[in-house]
Amino acid sequence: MKRNLILVLGALVAGCASKPAPRPEPEIRTVEVAVPVPVGCVPPNIAKPSAYPDTDAALRRAADAAERYQLVFAGRQLRSARLAEIEPVVAACPKAK
Fold first, then answer.
1. How does pLDDT run across 56-95, given as a tens digit for each residue?
2. Do residues 51 and 94 make contact, with C-beta atoms less than 8 angstroms apart?
3. How many structural domains compose the chain?
4. Is the whole-model pTM more than 0.85?
């Protein structure tokens, strides 16, 4: 019995002294994934819209029909110039799906 106990204790001590098997090195892979990135099509050099002269308040303050007409005409000229600047940009933008 003593002999068996000594053998078991010796096996346990020998088991603690052994080194575990080395772990395999992890496999590192680089995978490229194609993801569409949204790109804004409005260039930063487009100016903000200006203050148009034909506001409701300005048209109410106008003295007569001629002055209202001048305000509306000036606003239309500014809007037409801005539209001429913006239309090519909008035409160049890709269509949304």
1. 999 999 999 999 999 999 999 999 999 998 898 888 887 7
2. no
3. 1
4. no
The H-or-E segment that residue 25 falls in is none
**Is residue 50 included in any domain, yes or no?**
yes
Residue 96's domain comprises 44-97
Q: Which string of b and e fits 85-97 if b means at least 16 CB within 10 Å?
A: eeeeeeeeeeeee
Residues in the chain: 97
Question: Tokens 């300005």 — which residue?
Answer: 58
Using CA atoms, how far apart are residues 57 and 33, in angstroms rounded to an integer?
56
- 32 part of a folded domain: no
Structural domain includes residue 11: no
